[in-house]
Design goal:
With about 240 residues, the protein is mainly α. It contains seven helices and no strands. Helix 1 packs antiparallel against helix 3. The longest helix has about 45 residues.
């Protein structure tokens, strides 16, 4: 009996050490993405479900806390902590499955939302007083994703502020960026619109995150089984007293 408990105990400790490392990696990746996704969230302010970075940061913190509870509970063979860990692991697993389902449902609406948000969030406000953050976001987005406007470069000439004449764009639309190149109608500009570029970027991230969620979920099933086995063994040995 004691040998079985020890085996499960060390497996659970090892599992949570690895789970803690995974949580730290997810947290770090989320923080890195948060910096890179700044322009996306500035131009898409009412689409928080697309903010993969915040989700990863939250998930990383939760995994760090839960894995610490599980590891400490296993070391101390503490029934209450083991039961708490088991419940948290089940809840996190349910949340992962739910989040994955919601992501699948909402991904069909991404194209419509992206176009509406980009138009409302910005072409007419570009380079206007008090909109420095939005202007930088557009420039960063266009230069990074090699795109121009929402659908194409002509969107800039159709803005209400009249800042750009036909075939004129911000300098960040230029294939070879230089001061004033956007006003030069003969300079080479990016052809594709940023709507399609953003959707491709989001879909590629969603694919990676989806695979990661599946791997973590499968990994968690193993941890849930170990936690229950450890808790049951300790509980039986203690006569069912949760202390």
């Amino acid at each position: 009996m004691r040998g079985n408990i020890n085996c499960t105990k060390y497996m659970l400790i090892a599992f949570n050490v690895l789970f803690f490392v995974v949580g730290g990696a997810i947290l770090g990746a989320g923080a890195h993405l948060h910096i890179k996704e700044g322009p996306f969230m500035t131009l898409l302010p009412s689409m928080p479900f697309l903010n993969v970075a915040n989700v990863m940061i939250f998930a990383g913190i939760v995994i760090l806390v839960v894995s610490f509870i599980g590891g400490y509970g296993a070391i101390k063979e503490h029934q209450c902590l083991l039961l708490t860990y088991f419940v948290f692991m089940v809840l996190v697993f349910i949340l992962e499955v739910t989040a994955g389902g919601l992501g699948f449902v909402y991904r069909w609406q991404v194209a419509k939302y992206v176009a509406n948000e980009m138009r409302a969030g910005g072409l007419a406000k570009y380079n206007t007083p008090g909109e420095g953050g939005l202007t930088k976001a557009w420039d960063k987005l266009q230069s990074t994703l090699a795109c121009c406007g929402v659908f194409n470069d002509t969107d800039w000439a159709n803005t209400a502020n009249g800042m750009f004449l036909p075939r004129q764009t911000p300098d960040s639309c230029c294939l070879f960026a230089a001061p004033g190149c956007g006003k030069d109608v003969n300079s080479e500009k990016f052809i594709r619109g940023c709507k399609g570029a953003i959707i491709m970027e989001l879909e590629s991230k969603a694919h990676v995150v989806g695979i990661a969620c599946i791997i973590v979920a499968i990994f968690q099933i193993f941890g849930i089984g170990l936690a229950y086995t450890m808790w049951k063994s300790v509980s039986d040995r203690a006569g069912g007293n949760y202390v």
